[in-house]
Design a protein that fits this description.
This protein is α/β, with parallel strands linked by helices. It folds into two domains: 3-49 and 237-318, no CATH class; 55-231, Rossmann fold. The chain is built from twelve helices and six strands. It has helices spanning 3-16, 24-31, 37-47, 55-81, 88-100, 113-125, 170-173, 179-185, 203-211, 250-275, 282-292, 315-318; strands spanning 51-53, 102-106, 158-166, 193-202, 224-231, 303-305.
Length: 338
């Protein structure tokens, strides 16, 4: 392995794309985590393959998200409703009406990345502030068993959830994600169209969201789930179809996987009980560690963003815990629940 060539590639990425997040002294500190020289070489190889999206790239992706995944969809619906019209005035007038009957929501609580991105999404696309709300603003209070939209939002017919990444799909479909809000919306007599739009999404995760249904029924949770950048199996670092290893590098792929898994397992082992707020049974504990040792949901990503590094990325890249001696190269700002 040509180490100097790897360093030169990383330096170029660092200068042009990575906002100087991986200067050589930082790389040196990160490599000290690994016990063997061969492991340090393998780690450096993985770093040279990382995708990092800085501030300007994130803003550009949010413009694409609005243009390609929201606006173009609405315009296509307008054309279909108006016998295929190409009249720009008709389309724009109707588009404004439909935009004002849309509400944009973040994924997670107000401190999380999905909500944080709404600020830039609104700025970049010049969308009126009143179209951005929290989930608790949607529904009327004190309406008994019947679910109703609040008076302020009673004419809303489209709900759009915005997220940075859909990795395993659990954020959109799990009980602690947006599911409670969506299931409540599905109880409305005239439920609005519900979209889940993201900058990045794994093919598997997007499929999970598209197939998710309301509990106890076959009614789909979301009418659509789309990503600006859909990442297929080739973005899964150690998959046989991985884009990061050449045909003749399969032995390197297996060795590097073993290294990343060994350290990832050790790192997740340190925090798994804390994350679940209790001492887990051995069998469940082992399954959860396996599920996360190469990134949450076994996503095996090499992805970082200006505002955070997702836990779907290999833990050896981002792991940073107060009670563990491990220096990350792209830091992750973990959620503190208690």
């Amino acid at each position: 392995m040509d180490i100097e060539k790897l360093y030169k590639k990383i330096q170029t990425l660092n200068d042009i794309l990575w906002d100087n997040r991986a200067l050589r002294p930082f790389i040196g500190d990160w490599l000290k985590n690994f016990r063997e020289e061969e492991e340090r070489e393998e780690a450096l190889f993985l770093l040279s393959k990382c995708m990092y999206f800085g501030h300007s790239s994130i803003r550009a992706l949010l413009r694409e998200l609005y243009r390609d995944k929201y606006r173009s969809t609405v315009i296509q619906e307008i054309r279909e409703d108006y016998d295929g019209t190409m009249d720009g005035e008709i389309i724009e007038e109707e588009y404004k009406k439909r935009l004002f009957r849309t509400r944009f929501l973040g994924v997670g609580n107000p401190s999380e990345s999905g909500v944080h991105l709404l600020y830039y999404f609104r700025q970049e696309n010049k969308i009126p502030r009143k179209l951005f709300i929290n989930t608790d603003e949607l529904f009327a209070a004190d309406c008994g068993e019947e679910v109703k939209l609040s008076t302020k939002h009673k004419d809303v017919d489209r709900i759009v959830f915005i997220d940075d990444l859909c990795g395993s799909g659990s954020q959109a479909t799990g009980d602690s994600g947006v599911r409670p809000c969506v299931e409540k919306l599905r109880k409305l007599k005239n439920a609005p169209k519900i979209s889940y739009l993201m900058m990045f999404g794994t093919s598997d995760g997007i499929e999970v969201v598209r197939n998710a249904t309301v509990k106890g029924s076959d009614v789909k949770l979301f009418d659509e789930a789309e990503a600006v950048m859909e990442m297929n199996e080739s973005y899964k670092c150690f998959d046989e179809r991985s884009r990061y290893f050449k045909e003749e590098e399969q032995e390197l792929r297996e060795k590097t996987r073993d290294m990343a898994y060994k350290y990832g397992k050790e790192l997740i082992n340190n925090i798994i009980d804390r994350d679940y707020h209790k001492k887990l049974e051995d069998e469940r504990r082992a399954k959860l560690i396996e599920h996360r040792a190469l990134g949450f949901g076994n996503c095996q990503l090499l992805l970082s963003m200006q505002h955070n590094t997702p836990n779907n990325t290999l833990p050896i890249i981002w792991f940073d815990e107060d009670d563990t001696v491990w220096t990350p190269i792209f830091k992750r700002y973990n959620k503190v629940y208690k």
